[in-house]
């Protein structure tokens, strides 16, 4: 009868009591092989002899016999009062000590469209207060989030959870959260929707993926902004859509250009309220033209409203969805930008004609969204905690944008020009110095990185085809996650690196 170590020991050890080889020798061979093949690493702690004996249903003396042999040969070491460990310096390097299985196998045959998933990411390292200034865009200040209130909301919802919370089952997400989001969007964004139209998603990529699965056939063209957020293009291409890059100018997406190059596209993905990365607002004329195209072409528009809450002057702009009278706009927002990144919760508001189809698609692809945080999020909406946090962060980020602009004026001498923006979490610096412009934003960013400061080149977000308009040049300065005390030192370091 074979005896196998289970999860209690975390060792994959099998012994055969019918074998002519003694059990202690079998155990010795199993452990030695685990060490030599790398399943057990130097410094790993072995289970206590009594525990391992119980797990394998053998005598403790059998385990001790195997351990003693391995100790004498230098595979294991004893640490008084602590236990038995794999030795740091193994006694030999035999052919048995191989790389993990499969490491020398031929390269896997991936699908052609998978190359978009393997492209280098443009996002840099996560900034922390202990590091040099990080002006990478896309980060928020999570340290200002009211985690005490959040923990209370989590504890309240899970202290005596309802059956609905424990079992879930609704592919659209937690109904009270969907109701709260629908109420919020009606009041804050002018969007006429109900809880039945709202689908909880993990973020913009999942929203795009579901939209493409539901509305696109392989090879269908999709308008995407140029420059634009790379994650959207990657999700579309991975779903089989064909990207049609449409230029963004001072009025937003150039609808006329889209009509010239891909009039029969099935979908357009836009960020009309605050385009990423340029920060421009789509004009009313362009919005109406986009909706007219969608109506006539029987196409769809995905509206990415990723940071509409962070507007520092005037009232928030109306969403494109609020102008849609034909049910062609799919609206997407995020709570991760509002609260903290690892929350990974967003929402999709489907046209009424597509709401049931989106719920069905979600049930097939991903069953249902995780319920762990949804009840607490619903309470954050209804209690007013979320609105209060947004008001605080608007003031917080507006101050940090001002600090960035002041530091740029002081140290850049006009050679990198940053203009204030009424919204958003980053500014685009124009390379107004001819020498920097000739060098190119990617090389300039490399020089800045060598000085210990991180920025992102705008060209990394411009994936336009060769032969069309020139690649956009500039430097993206994220300011939301930069501590107040880091703006002046960061700008000074940049100026020194570029000899400004």
Describe what you observe in this structure:
Helices cover 37% and strands 13% of the residues. The protein has 500 residues and is α/β, with parallel strands linked by helices. The strands form four sheets. The chain has an eight-stranded mixed beta sheet, with helices on both faces. It has three domains: 85 residues, Orthogonal Bundle (Arc Repressor Mutant, subunit A); 123 residues, Aspartate Aminotransferase, domain 1 (Alpha-Beta Complex), CATH 3.90.1150; 233 residues, Type I PLP-dependent aspartate aminotransferase-like (Major domain) (Aspartate Aminotransferase, domain 2). The longest helix is centred in the C-terminal third of the chain and has 28 residues.
Features:
Arc Repressor Mutant, subunit A; Aspartate Aminotransferase, domain 1; alpha/beta; 500 residues
- Give the terminus-to-terminus CA distance: 78 Å
Number of structurally distinct domains:
3
The poorly predicted ranges are: 95-103, 124-131
CATH topology type of the largest domain: Aspartate Aminotransferase, domain 2
CATH class of the largest domain: Alpha Beta
Overall residue-averaged pLDDT value: 87
Helix content class? 25-40%
Strand content: 5-15%
